[in-house]
Write a structure and sequence with these properties.
Oligomer: single chain
Order of helices and strands: EHEHHHEHEHHEH
Largest sheet: 5 strands, parallel
Number of domains: 1
Helix content: 40-55%
Radius of gyration: 15 Å
Strand order of the largest sheet: 2-3-1-4-5
Number of strands: 5
Bound molecules: shikimate-3-phosphate
Length: about 180
């Protein structure tokens, strides 16, 4: 594993993989700072993600995401819950690698659907709330998630505490924590 330069932990994975939940738990257990990328973008832009997509398009959102990943990569000691698409751009994956350790949370499409089905604030899934679409997009993104990941952790049918313990254990084993 690469050295965790700047000591951040970037949590990546598909929408509904559990990034926000696990990031909060990791923050509590490690005392590190916490940044939820989507929340930060919403605060800074003063509008919800769906509105950013509607008014300015997905490309503009990806620009904002890139700027934020790069800024966060240079700061230290932060657990970053990344947006599900934050790994699509190579420049973002590079900034994550430079800035810390990348932890990839995985889940089956069926699990993802169960977790996101009630949500209306993910423009990518609006009108596409079904296993087939999720499976297809996940397959399309698999290579970039895998390219970015230092550690992969499966989340299906596991409690948040179990998942968090596994991550902390593996980061300690690799002398990251
Ligand atoms: C997206 C995931 C979302 C959010 C935006 C786009 C994606 O974040 O950034 O709706 O392209 O996968 P979550 O993974 O936190 O839902």
């Amino acid at each position: 594993m690469e050295n965790a330069k700047n000591g951040n932990i970037f949590l990546i994975g598909f929408m509904g993989a559990g990034k926000s939940t696990i990031a909060r738990l990791l923050q509590k257990q490690t005392g590190m700072k916490l940044v939820e990328m989507d929340e930060r973008i919403v605060q800074e832009q003063g509008m919800p993600i769906t509105e950013i997509f509607e008014r300015y398009g997905e490309d503009r959102f990806r620009e904002l995401e890139s700027e934020l990943v790069k800024t966060l990569g240079q700061e230290g000691n932060t657990v970053v819950s990344c947006g599900g698409g934050a790994v699509i751009r190579q420049e973002n994956r590079d900034a994550m690698k430079q800035g810390g350790t990348v932890v990839y949370l995985t889940a089956k499409p069926e699990t993802i659907l169960e977790r996101v089905r009630g949500s209306k604030d993910r423009p990518i899934l609006n009108g596409n709330m079904n296993v087939e679409y999720i499976a297809q997009l996940m397959e399309k993104r698999r290579a970039v998630y895998e390219a970015a990941a230092d550690i992969s952790v499966a989340t299906d049918k596991r409690s948040k505490n179990e998942i968090c313990e596994e991550i902390i254990g593996r980061l300690k084993l690799n002398e990251i924590l």
